[in-house]
Specification:
Blueprint: H1 16-23, H2 27-34, H3 42-55, H4 61-68, E1 73-78, H5 83-96, E2 102-107, H6 118-126, E3 133-137, E4 150-153, E5 163-167, H7 169-183, E6 188-192, H8 198-213, E7 223-225, H9 230-241, E8 249-252, H10 255-267, E9 277-282, E10 295-298, H11 301-316, E11 324-327, E12 330-332
Parallel strand pairs: 1-2, 1-3, 3-4, 4-5, 5-11, 6-7, 6-8, 8-9, 9-10
Antiparallel strand pairs: 10-12
């Protein structure tokens, strides 16, 4: 097979003309090859494919969608790239391998800002011409009607409207508090998430249910808002742990809040778990790297992502699918919990 002539290595996007010149064929011939159409001799097709691979030529997503009404791309919309969404992306990426779809990850918020409706704006920008379907991570509002299939992971408003994948937040909270009760703790505080979020409400409900089942009245002064934020949780934990009647254990509604509690305890000279037991929720990678390693309720984050992919692919194929999938949580005991000091 003859070798392809060299092409100038000028900066910028490789064009279809660059491929045609390097392969010594016409632009229509390259178009037929990259769009998998007939009418090209096998030897010519191989030569063009080699040049496409060598030059890294990619067709425009917009042009591709105009030709076929499909882009072959799934959009992953997250508010921001933080530990929770990053772990979900790992599962989504693994589950998409071999499906013929590519992924486009898109962050709808700038870190540290609050912009309601980011989901609507993101879907509007990407739908139709850039992506065939979307997985939206922790949308904060009800998702609008869309021209493409959409799956929501752990929506703030709960499993309503669009297809949804989430985990058992209430059951997970119960096993967290039951673990502390089994160790002998009775004065257990709860650093809860944002009051308007379904996951935070369910985790608080699980906390209350576990105490109630043990015959322990809930002390409302031991419930403080951490808003799922490490700094906020650390601030309220400092005040909580400075009280003369401080709790012997804290159940935080997510790992970021639990890490904030660990920082507050260290600032006050409290030892974990000798003076205070701390347990979180999520099991993000950082949970195993804290000092001491954090006991936490594990959400199957990669499985969450994979389940969302399976649901979305079924929708793209026009197959019937469940409206809601809920996955179980499990307790991962590490070294931040122990029996209370006698």
């Amino acid at each position: 097979m003859e070798t392809a002539p060299d092409v100038d290595s000028s900066p910028g996007r490789v064009t279809i003309g660059d491929v045609a010149r390097a392969a010594g064929v016409s632009i229509p011939t390259v178009s037929k090859v990259v769009n998998h159409r007939d009418g090209v001799a096998p030897a010519t097709m191989l030569r063009v494919q080699e040049v496409v691979e060598r030059l890294g030529y990619e067709t425009s997503l917009v042009a591709r969608s105009l030709r076929s009404s499909r882009t072959g791309v799934i959009g992953i919309l997250v508010p921001e790239f933080e530990p929770f969404s990053t772990e979900l992306l790992r599962g989504i990426s693994s589950a998409t391998t071999g499906t013929g779809y590519e992924l486009l990850a898109y962050a709808g918020l700038v870190t540290g800002t609050s912009q309601p409706g980011w989901e609507r704006r993101s879907l509007s920008r990407l739908s139709g011409t850039l992506i065939d379907g979307a997985i939206v991570v922790t949308p904060s509002a009800a998702l609008p009607s869309s021209s493409i299939p959409v799956v929501a992971i752990d929506p703030h408003t709960g499993p309503e409207g669009h297809a949804t994948v989430d985990t058992d937040s209430e059951g997970g909270a119960r096993i967290a508090v039951e673990h502390l009760l089994a160790l002998g703790h009775t004065r257990i505080a709860h650093i809860h998430g944002r009051a308007d979020l379904a996951s935070a409400q369910l985790r608080e409900a699980g906390y209350r249910a576990a105490l109630g089942a043990a015959g322990i009245a809930v002390d409302e002064t031991l419930l403080l808002a951490g808003d799922y934020q490490e700094d906020q949780a650390a601030e309220v934990a400092r005040a909580l742990l400075s009280r003369p009647d401080r709790p012997t254990a804290v159940f935080a509604a997510n790992d970021s809040s639990a890490i904030g509690v660990l920082h507050a305890a260290a600032d006050l000279g409290l030892r974990v778990p000798e003076d205070l037991s701390v347990i979180g929720f999520d099991d993000v990678p950082q949970a195993a790297m804290t000092t001491p390693p954090l006991t936490t309720v594990a959400q199957p984050l990669t499985e969450l992502g994979a389940s969302a992919v399976a649901m979305l692919l079924a929708m793209l194929r026009g197959e019937p699918t469940k409206d809601h999938v809920r996955l179980d949580t499990t307790l991962h005991v590490r070294r931040s919990t122990a029996r209370p000091a006698s």
